[in-house]
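In this section we walk through a basic example: taking a raw amino acid sequence and producing a predicted 3D structure, encoded as discrete structure tokens. The instruction is simple. Fold the sequence below.
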Amino acid sequence: MAFVIFLIPCFMVGTDVAFSCQNADDFVGASSPGDIVIGGLFSVHSEMLRPEEDPIKPVIQNCAGFEIQVFLQTLAMIHAIETINNSTLLSGVTLGYEIYDTCAEVTKAMASALRFLSKFNSSEDAVEFKCNYSDYIPRVKAVIGASYSEVSMAVSRLLALQLIPQVSPASSAEILSDKIRFPSFFRTIPSDFHQTRAMTRLICESGWNWIGVIATDDDNGRFALESFGVQAMANNVCIAFKEMLPAYLSDSTFHTKVDQAIENIVKEKRLLEELKRVVVIDGDKEVKFDSHGDMSTSYDVLLWKEIDGHMEITTMAEYDAEKGDFIFEDEEKKKDFLALKKVQSTCSQPCSPGQVKKVTESPHTCCYECIYCPENHYSNQTDMDYCYRCNNKTYWAPVNSSTCYRKTIYFLAWTDWFAIFLLLLSAFGVVLVLSICVIFTKNLDTPVVKASGGLTVCYIILFSHFLIFLSTVFFIDIPTEFKCKTRQAVFGISFTLCISCILIKSLKILLAFSFDPKLQNFLKCMYKPIPTVATCTGIQVIICTFWLIFRTPFVNQNFSIPRAIILECNEGSIVAFGIMLGYIAALAFICFIFAFKGRKLPENYNEAKFITFGMLIYFIAWIVFIPVYATTFGKYLPAVEIIVVLISNYGILCCTFLPKCYIIIYKQETNTKSAFLKMVYTYSSKSAGSVAVSQASLDSKSSSFRATVTDLCKTENDSVNGNCHFQVPGQSLIKGKVLPQNAARTMVRKRVSSI
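The resulting token sequence is shown next.
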């Protein structure tokens, strides 16, 4: 202690100026011999004076700026060593020390480090060059210091040559945690990484993003600024300005806990490894070095308050470097901490959800404008840098949206009023078909039913009409693979069957009343009912089969409407669809030609005229359908085809059967064989070009239609003993003798009755 008391005035002499050394011993600030010597590097003076000589000489310059607090730290080290020597901790071993004043200057600290590396108990302060320093015993076994990171980095690189442990109480540069470059460096404070992370966390918790940074212009300040800049950028915090101050101007307020690891060190060679396992008990906490040689201690968050013109500094919170969180002593201090959010430190107002940041011409990313997210884009957080894109196939979003909305799925549903209307029309058509079936079945033996080709042909035609009405059901509700494949095939085959049967009826009517021998022979060759219907319908079946196999229809999602998904059937091949409709149109056209030629037949036989009207309705409906179908889109597209199907089906059904039903129900007097014979005779008379029919002309004409009326006369109630009686308008009742069948076959012109 006497040495310490004597040392104080020695440092104070010279009006705060330390003179340069004249020899090596003068260079030492304080020293004491021992078995194990510990070095010390303290910046008792805060700066080194600039040399006055010109040119500059390689000498250690004078220092100035006495730091009383650092000087007290030096005394604390000396006191700790003497306390250990005066105790029984290290019996038989004496600790010594060599303490140097670095003057907060790397140059002088390097000179001190060279002296540390000199050989132990050597008369010369020289560092020997060796390739292997394993057996080399340096002057000191460990070094305490330095305070400034810039100095510690330079010294540690030299001490690493002989792996001399260095324990710093205040050097916090993050780079010193690199054990590749600084393998023997330890420190009793956390790295600047934790400090800068704590600062960034404090800024984020306060809601700030527009700040200024002041750092010292040395390695420590620059490395800390770089670390803080990286973490600030990662947390969207902008640095408005950076101010670098000259180093060593600030008053040192660091409090060092001297490492007591040397108390347990007996063997010199184990010093470095023993330091890595040192544990210091601080109250109820254990403090130890981590794998980087750093001690994970905490930071105090200080709050500066101006009260009555005086600045009061209070500890507001503690930052736990390991947990990365703030710890508060009570709720009052937590409220003060949360109150920091009231302090506004932002360059721009935050962008709300639905908006996105647009960086302005400012170089800072924290200065921006808030713009709305465009359509089909959204942002669900504040201050987003970009908008997320909605899945355009299933979702949509309006402008300035914070979320995406699922698109509405549209299709022609059962509950749609238009679908209900179309279904009612189809149901009415089914009822109409069934009603016609009942009427024709009850009047099976009447001439009108027989003239229609018989009940079998009527049933086939009516069944095809029934299937056509039924096919409209497959156009409504959610499209499925089955519906898409079935609806066109059912419609196409049914319509072809219907047109084929009507075509046979047209041929039969034309054949029955044609007086042209050449045309009659052609029609006889063509008139083969069953093969014709089977062939015409079979071709359509083949067309639909190839269509379903090679280019089958499928369910398609139409995204043409921005906020909706339209479920529809894709026909698979427009060409196949066109071939199917074209084939039906070709049959209808042939049927129309044959029916048109027979339009002037007798009134009761004039089915051809109505067939002509039905075909015209079909052509008009489907000609209008093509441009409408091509230009229509949306859920009502199937309704367009349903309408055309219903119009064409109703047109053919009504023109084919309703006139006959009218005769059966309301004109029963004309639904007799006598009435039909009169109509036939009148038509035959007009065909001969004679209005007043004579007996001679009657004989000649009777031979031309005798085969036609033979069947009627056989069953007519008015015929007696082979005589047939019929009345020609304007003439008296005519009696004619019915020729035998053998005689009828020998007639020049044979007829095929339509009845």
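Looking at the output, two observations stand out. Residues 722 and 738 are 6 Å apart (CA to CA). Residues 481-512 form the longest helix (32 residues). In the next section we compare this with other chains.
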